[in-house]
Each structure stands twice: as C-alpha cells, then as structure tokens.
Design brief:
The complex is a heterodimer of chains A (about 230) and B (about 190). Chain A is an alpha/beta fold and about 230 residues long. Chain A has helices spanning about 20-35, 45-50, 50-65, 80-95, 120-135, 160-175, 185-190, 195-215; strands spanning about 5-10, 40-45, 65-75, 105-110, 135-145. Chain A has 2 domains: about 5-195, Flavodoxin domain (Rossmann fold), CATH 3.40.50; about 195-228, no CATH class. A 5-stranded parallel beta sheet of chain B has the order 2-1-3-6-7, sandwiched between helices. A two-stranded antiparallel ribbon of chain B has the order 4-5. Chain B is globular, with a radius of gyration of 16 Å. Classes of the chains: A alpha/beta (about 230), B alpha/beta (about 190).
C-alpha cells in the first residue's frame, strides 16, 4: 500500500444519500482521512449504476483515487445487488487496463443481526475482488447490530458509537500512513453496541411499530404465495 | 415435485446457460416440473431495502415486476437451484438481485438458530437449496467462500437441505454433466 493522497467512498446501499448506515460509517472515516490532508470524494451506487454514462463517471473516479472505501449493508449474507454489479464493472474495467492504478481497497460491512460474524463471507468476497481487480487489500471491518445506527451520523449517537468511532479513528491513522486497518480496529468494531437480547427485543418491537403505522399488524404472518 | 432454477448467467455466458439446460433436462427426465428463470432476460428491479415486504404488504414486495413471480416460484418449489458464475467467491449480480428480493419469503422477527440470530420462517415449508457455481478453473479460496455462502443462505432461507458444487469452464463437457447429475443424485433429488 502506498500513502494515499485521495480517497473515494463508495456507498453500497440502495438507500438515498444521507439515509444509510453505510454512508454514516464511511462519512466518518472520510472526515478523519480529510484531517490527514487526503482529498475525499463520495459516490453512491444507487445513483452511479443508473446509466452507462454514470457508470463511466464512477470508473473514472475509481481511477483517480489512491484509496477506495467500500461501505455496504449486508443483504442475505453478501453484498447487495448494486454493490455486486459495481464490483463486476470495476474489476472488468481494471482488468482491461495494461497497468491499473496501484490503489488500495478497504471494506466496511454492517449487518442487521447482532453478531458481526454474519459479515465474514461478504468481507472475504471484497478481499477476493481486491485481489482480482489489482487493488491492495487494506482490510475489512464488520459491524453487527447496524439497526442501532439506522443511518444517523456517529456524532449524534454519543457514547453508544464510541467503539465504532475509535475503530475508524485507528483505521484512518493507519490508512493515512499507507498501512492496512489494524487488528485493534477490527476488534473495536466487533464489540457489541448493546446486548444481543436487548437488540433483538428492540428490533421486534420496531417491526411491530412499523406494521402498526401501516395498519398491517393483522397481516404480518401472511403467506401470499400459498401454504395456507 | 417442483424445481426452480435461477440462472444468474451474465450476457454471453453460454457455458452457464448450457449448465442450466443440463440441470433442467435431468430433473425433467426424472419427473420434475421445472421452472427455469434466465434472470438477465427478466425485467426485475433491485431491492430498495425499504422492508415494506415485512411491515406494509407482508410477504409481497412493493415492486410489481417479475421479482414477485420469482419469489412465488421459489416458495412453491421443493428445490431451488442457484446457478451462477462465481463472482469474487459469491453470486453474479443477476442472481444476487433476485436473492435480495426474496426476503419477502421470511419474517422480520428474530429467532436464534444454532446460537446465532436469524429471521423466523414465514412459510411452513421451504425448498431444498443447491448452489452450482462456475469458475474458469480451480480456485480453492473462491470455492470455499462459495460453499460457505450457500450454507449461510440455507440457514437464513430455512432450507431443509442444501448442497453446493463448483464446475469449471476448462472442464470436459462430459465430466461437468456428470458432476451436475452427481449433485442432484447425492442430494436425493434425482435417481438415475
């Protein structure tokens, strides 16, 4: 890994700008990188993958960056469709180049289950992508209980986000020095935001509250495709 | 018995299309009713992550397109086959799009399975799951990730049985066909 002068945050969520936990995590890291004098840019796959012209803009942004930060939510054990499609296009783009830029890739995965280990296969896929597309692998950070953040900025979460912020601070320091994310950062990120049983209870209450808002409480167990 | 084949081939990938045809033929020859989906040919939007299929229109995605029919096809089957070029150890974007859209088949509520939190089942019965990945040649790391991913998906989608196989583009056509037949047989889905 070389010392980066520029960093691109690629937000892998399908949600709109300003609404996703992926963006909240990536934005915090980007802010810390900027404090190290690194030029930063943010792209959203939900916007970047809409047309071929925008895809080309995304590929050019990737070419310009020394460091790519891919932040995404876990969808069914892996990267969401849009992020997967973006990685396919970026890999094909770089493989077609005789000498793609010697950039690095860091991945941040957040999942809605309390256990961080759900993110492991997706982060391993990101490492394989980095290898195949010619990026230096700067490491993967996995976060469980992402529903606690729910798109809010880390600054607004106070002490609850202390370990996440500390993990990203350590990561920014390492990346700015041309080093991958340290083990300590991964450990801090994996620390539970709150007890798993409490998270599950709060999550289930949250689903009920949303269903009530939509007047769907009595239909929550529906089986519209059969089996009574 | 009913089977759904989700063919995640990207445009121009005749090898994966031929594997789909081979699986369809083998199942059909053994009396199965097969619904094959060549996903790149379908107009299917991506999951918006809105969770309305859990809280507003339970069990049905808000997007009215072929994604709904694919979800129905999956849950009405005894077997679902994920067929895909292996992409960084995972699925192609075409296959991932419909897998993301299939969360309407499970419940939002949490439960513990083997000490981990997952989602409750929505339906009484779920299809067995087979993953068939295609790689240019052997790649132990990608193969390990692929098998792990399929096993993890089987937990989340409440599959009563799962198995996975990787075949290679540089493999003789005959041996690839034997491997495909083998996974159907070993999983008890097909007797030859």
């Amino acid at each position: 890994m070389k010392t980066p002068k520029s960093a691109l945050l690629l937000v892998g969520s399908a949600k709109l700008a300003g609404e996703s936990t992926s963006e909240a995590l990536g934005a915090y890291l980007l802010q810390r990188l900027a404090e190290h004098g690194i030029a930063t840019e943010t792209r959203y796959v939900a916007r970047a993958m809409r047309t071929e012209a925008r895809i080309q803009e995304l590929l050019q942004a990737v070419d310009r960056a020394d460091l790519i930060v891919l932040a995404f939510p876990l969808y069914v054990d892996s990267l969401p469709y849009l992020a997967t499609q973006a990685l396919e296009r970026i890999a094909a783009h770089r493989l077609a180049q005789p000498a793609p830029s010697p950039a690095a890739l860091l991945a941040i995965a957040n999942c809605g289950f309390p256990e961080t280990r759900h993110t492991a296969p997706a982060l391993e896929m990101c490492a394989r992508f980095a290898d195949q597309a010619g990026f230096a692998w700067a490491g993967g950070l996995g976060l469980g209980a992402g529903g606690v953040i729910s798109g809010r900025s880390l600054a607004g979460l106070g002490g609850m986000a202390h370990n996440i912020a500390a993990a990203l601070d350590l990561t920014a320091d390492a990346l700015a020095a041309g080093q991958p994310a340290p083990e300590d950062a991964r450990d801090l990120m994996e620390r539970p935001l709150l007890p798993a049983n409490l998270y599950v209870w709060m999550g289930d209450i949250g689903w009920l509250a949303q269903a009530r808002q939509y007047r769907a409480l009595t239909r929550l167990a529906a089986r519209p495709y059969g089996q009574g | 018995m009913k089977a759904t084949i989700l063919n995640g081939a990207l445009p121009g990938d005749s090898f994966v299309d031929e594997a789909a045809a081979s699986l369809q033929y083998r199942l059909h020859a053994n009396g199965w009713a097969v619904t094959p989906w060549t996903l790149r040919q379908e107009k299917i939007a991506y999951c918006l992550g809105c969770f309305e299929c859990w809280t507003k229109t339970p069990g049905v995605c808000r997007i009215d397109d072929a994604g709904r029919q694919v979800a129905a096809s999956i849950i009405q089957s005894d077997l679902v086959i994920y067929l895909t070029p292996v992409t960084f150890g995972g699925y192609s974007s075409e296959l991932k799009k419909v897998i993301d859209r299939s969360i309407c088949l499970i419940s939002p509520f949490f439960k513990r399975i083997n000490g981990e939190v997952h989602h409750h089942a929505r339906y009484r019965r779920y299809p067995a799951m087979i993953g068939v990945g295609v790689l240019p040649g052997t790649d132990p790391e990608q193969e390990r990730i692929f098998h792990t991913l399929l096993a993890r998906n089987a937990i989340n989608m409440h599959a009563p049985m799962h198995d996975s196989l990787v075949i290679y583009r540089n493999q003789e056509a005959g041996s690839a066909a034997v491997a495909l037949r083998g996974i159907l047989e070993s999983s008890g889905r097909v007797s030859v």
